[in-house]
């Protein structure tokens, strides 16, 4: 009776604040509707031990309950995400926590490799079921807004390589090269000589295979290597969707390493997810906690101001900044749609827990980008103090 009264009090409180198209079904047959309209989402509570997740419905608690099978949810995925955020918003304050600041000593090469392999080494087949054919796992660039995913991903790569003015014969280092799409394009279209590094064994194997199949083994080298171990200098350096794993306190060292790898007149591109909280706090309502626990161990997102500050601390001067937040909302939305369309195949490829994690993660990310909780910024930079008169005087060259 204690839990039932507490639940009824909680339901009344939510109803008083918002009429949600939500139905709650309890293990004993009792049910609650939160609005007068027909429910779009039904949450089934299998036993009393699941109630604490609902009574404190942060995104971390709701996500954990779903992933661990403590709650069952029925409805369209977009509606489920909307309802989860509404429950959290009506039950919690929107204050973000202080920056996570994981112990920088946790970002050892061994621990970083383990974190990367946890996320990326699910299986190549798993990623193929929701990414584009080139398997580009980062924000696409919808130049006109109506491109399909494959076209938008190729445009993103071309946008990056054009921004940093890759020329035939240039040496290019791609930090976190994924399955090799960027270095393949840089070699094939722009004539660059490329090195791609990754900590994912699956990515390394498939990227190497793709380079060989393209007949570009003499022009592209794929390494299973930590970027901190790379030696030499390069005309161009790209880092796409990688610096989120570095750690906030390690950003000056990360950018200093890029500076040391860059030739004096070279250019670099840092393309990565940023927090929209000025203090680089985690996303509201516990979303960041869920991602840290289940998706990206030790991931940390800086505000763009911190990116620019630590970039300068690392000896790099920012030349151009572009916000692609809405592009990532659209990208993640397409990934989530592809995931749903291939749900039966994906269930056969991974266990139920992994399936549930990724199902809510992809759709949740689309929601977070759409609502300005997180963003995506591309920053073109070069060594501080260089002669900048050789740079183009306007951004026109980026759109030729």
UniProtKB/TrEMBL annotation:
GO biological process, one term: lipid biosynthetic process
Keywords (A to Z) from UniProt: Lipid metabolism, Methyltransferase, S-adenosyl-L-methionine, Transferase
Molecular function as annotated in GO: methyltransferase activity
InterPro entries from the UniProt entry: CFA/CMAS, CMAS, DUF7884, SAM-dependent_MTases_sf
A matching Pfam family: CMAS
Active site: 365
CDD domains: AdoMet_MTases
Domain DUF7884: 14-93
Protein family according to the UniProt entry: Belongs to the CFA/CMAS family.
Protein name: Class I SAM-dependent methyltransferase
Native species: Noviherbaspirillum pedocola
């Amino acid at each position: 009776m204690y839990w039932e009264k507490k639940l009824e009090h909680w339901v009344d409180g939510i109803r008083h604040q918002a009429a949600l198209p939500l139905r709650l079904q309890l293990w004993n047959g009792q049910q609650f509707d939160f609005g007068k309209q027909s429910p779009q989402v039904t949450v089934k509570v299998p036993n009393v031990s699941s109630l604490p997740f609902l009574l404190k419905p942060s995104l971390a608690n709701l996500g954990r309950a779903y992933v661990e099978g403590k709650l069952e949810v029925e409805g369209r995925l977009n509606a489920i995400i909307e309802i989860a955020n509404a429950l959290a918003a009506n039950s919690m304050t929107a204050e973000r926590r202080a920056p996570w600041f994981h112990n920088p000593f946790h970002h050892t090469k061994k621990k970083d490799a383990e974190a990367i392999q946890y996320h990326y080494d699910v299986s190549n087949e798993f990623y193929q079921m929701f990414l584009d054919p080139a398997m580009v796992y980062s924000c696409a660039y919808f130049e006109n807004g109506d491109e399909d995913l494959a076209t938008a991903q190729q445009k993103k790569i071309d946008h990056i390589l054009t921004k940093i003015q890759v020329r035939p014969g240039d040496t290019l280092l791609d930090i976190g090269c994924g399955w090799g799409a960027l270095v393949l394009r840089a070699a094939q279209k722009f004539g660059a000589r490329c090195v791609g590094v990754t900590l994912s064994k699956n990515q390394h194997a498939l990227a190497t295979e793709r380079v060989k199949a393209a007949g570009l083994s003499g022009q592209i080298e794929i390494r299973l290597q930590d970027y901190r171990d790379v030696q030499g200098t390069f005309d161009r350096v790209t880092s796409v969707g990688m610096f989120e794993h570095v750690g906030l306190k390690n950003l000056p060292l990360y950018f200093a390493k890029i500076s040391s790898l860059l030739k004096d007149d070279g250019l670099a591109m840092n393309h990565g997810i940023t927090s929209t909280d000025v203090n680089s706090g985690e996303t509201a309502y516990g979303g960041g906690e869920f991602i840290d626990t289940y998706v990206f161990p030790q991931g940390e997102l800086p505000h763009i101001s911190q990116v620019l500050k630590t970039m300068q601390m690392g000896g790099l001067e920012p030349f151009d900044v572009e916000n692609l937040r809405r592009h990532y909302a659209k990208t993640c939305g397409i990934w989530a749609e592809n995931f749903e369309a291939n749900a039966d195949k994906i269930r056969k490829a991974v266990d139920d827990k992994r399936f549930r994690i990724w199902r809510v993660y992809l759709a949740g990310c689309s929601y977070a980008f759409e609502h300005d909780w997180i963003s995506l910024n591309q920053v073109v930079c070069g060594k501080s103090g260089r002669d900048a008169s050789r740079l183009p005087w306007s951004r026109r060259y980026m759109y030729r």
